# Entry
Amino acid sequence: MIKEIRSKTILNHVKQPDTWFGLKYNMNLYRGCQHQCIYCDSRSDCYRIENFADIHVKVNALELLEDVLPRKRVRGTIGFGSMNDPYMPIEREYKMTGRALEIIARHRFPVHILTKSDLVLRDVDILREIGQTYAAVSFTVTTADDELAAKVEPGAPRPSARYTAIGALAKAGIATGITMMPILPFLEDTVENITQIVTLAHENGASYILPAFGMTLRAGSREYYYDKLDQLFPGLKAKYQRRYGNSYECSVKNWKQLNDGFRERCEHFGIATKMPIFQPEKVNKKVDNRQMRLF
Ligand code: SF4
# Structure
């Protein structure tokens, strides 16, 4: 079901310093996600999204953004994609993300996009413009195997399409890389999978890979994931229950071996394992205003 809604606010402050992406603000133009990854944390009860498959479009989001951006005193990175994918299929029709980027470009804010979709290539010109300030696009890849991805990320473009998009963005001069997370225990925690993800990243021009060797599960997301395991990989749920019980953090057993191999391979290819984040101007608008008053 698709429903149009009106939102009261659009730009959320990221309260904790964000060491992954250096975000200052977060923005979700939609609620719910059509990619329907079986492991998605956004299904957790704490977010109170009743039916994650229902898509809500915040139709007044662009007006809100146009209004709020000029009033922001700190020009920090705006993140897309924390609770849903900004380039899920409905974006073709509504173009909320594309139009938000046009507004952001006008106000010269830096941007980080997290996606699994090659639809982001539609906005390559506007991303190049924003890139004069700062723009980075991270693609989530949990497996390099298209067949396995079709099971665990059924609504998302396949990893092969994501790698092609990485290649196109890298060629266009936009900072692009991979968020290699989650790595699903018993399904994706093999040396071969990690090696293939890194090798394809190198071949397609990714400049960084951010790894996490495991997944998180909590009330709401756990039940959904376990139901899907029963359908797709019979017998696996019992292994999870034995190893993780009700733990939130579920690290893969061989994480040290995978991590060592991952870092070795990244070093070999010259791929960073942290991303280059936007360095806020030392003199932001706030300081500018103070100086204006002083003089
Ligand atoms: S793309 Fe991201 S937000 Fe969407 S279902 Fe998958 S994990 Fe969740």
